[in-house]
Specification:
about 290 residues; alpha/beta; binds S-adenosylmethionine
Length: about 290
């Protein structure tokens, strides 16, 4: 049988749809464009092109992976976060759109304080998305990026190399464990794992079956990492230092209760994401 671009797209769209894959047309277009090393829309200019055996075999492998609910980003090997092309793949968390809110608030704070240099600590750096977005805008900031996962750090290292951001230093460890007691930071940032473990069953297969669990879950209520970060960051923040942490909207009340009792942070506030859900908290240490 002869497979043209249009025939193959049509057939595989139905195949993926039957497997329960959303936006199946778009998905197969991305896969085929990847195999042919073309832009997705240029497939329409070549709809009658006949695919050879090698191209068909390569496409079939990718289609099979996607039919097993592997995220498209893992298959293509890249993901766009705030204009940054990042390498992603099995073993590393795929940066989410809502995390742009965290980056934007950090950049805004730097602008407001007219900070050009600072020491930043990112806990749970993953692909490096947040730190790279900051480093690209502020090349004189020194960043330490920590992750517990060796696999995640491989991607972070690769992305740092690709974007030539050597001011980001990587360390492997559990939250603050790789930070020396004398090390102090102007800013501590984290998009930690914050899902409640009982939520596992309700997640999409793409997330549940393929993304690393340690990047997603943090105890029964999803708060374990967040509470440790609030508790421990005080030992590592310089006077007037700032803490930026992403969280899940339903955790707001519990986090607020912690800040109400805690006198260390002299200012704290919540910020909403693009869907008007509480998504980020910013806390500041006083002058002393
Ligand atoms: C939600 S992902 C965020 C990754 C990246 N910062 C981003 O926003 O795309 C959380 C990251 O924290 C890491 N992580 C989980 N528990 C950790 C811990 N106890 N200490 C350090 N990193 C941890 C995971 O491996 C994962 O890379």
């Amino acid at each position: 049988m002869t497979w043209t671009v249009s025939k193959l797209l049509q057939w595989s769209q139905l195949y993926l749809a039957e497997k329960g894959i959303e936006e199946s047309r778009l998905q197969v277009e991305y896969l085929l464009a990847h195999v042919l090393a073309k832009k997705r829309l240029s497939l329409y200019l070549e709809s009658d092109r006949v695919l050879n055996e090698t191209e068909l075999a390569a496409f079939k492998t990718l289609l099979q992976r996607r039919s097993q609910k592997e995220p498209l980003q893992y298959i293509l090997g890249t993901h766009l976060f705030m204009d940054l092309n990042l390498k992603v793949g099995p073993g590393v968390f795929i940066p989410r759109f809502e995390t742009e809110v965290l980056v934007e608030n950090v950049l805004e704070a730097f602008q407001k304080r007219e900070m050009k240099t600072a020491r930043i600590l990112e806990l749970g750096i993953g692909t490096g998305a947040i730190s790279l977005a900051i480093a690209k805008k502020y090349p004189d900031m020194a960043i330490v990026g920590v992750d517990v996962s060796a696999e995640a750090l491989k991607y972070a290292k690769e992305n740092i190399g690709l974007h030539a951001c050597s001011q980001i230093e990587l360390r492997q460890g559990d939250l603050f464990s790789s930070i020396e007691p004398h090390e102090k930071f102007d800013v501590i940032i984290s998009n930690p794992p914050y899902l409640a473990e009982p939520l596992w069953a309700s997640l999409k297969d793409e997330v549940k079956l393929h993304e690393p669990k340690e990047a997603l879950f943090s105890g029964e209520e999803g708060l374990d990492c967040i509470l440790k970060i609030i508790e421990t960051s005080r030992y590592y923040l310089k006077p007037e230092g700032m803490l930026f942490v992403e969280f899940s909207p339903e955790q707001r009340d519990q986090i607020e209760a912690v800040f109400k009792k805690d006198t260390f942070f002299t200012m704290w506030k919540f910020v909403r994401d693009y869907e008007h859900r509480d998504r980020l908290f910013i806390a500041e240490r006083g002058k002393t």
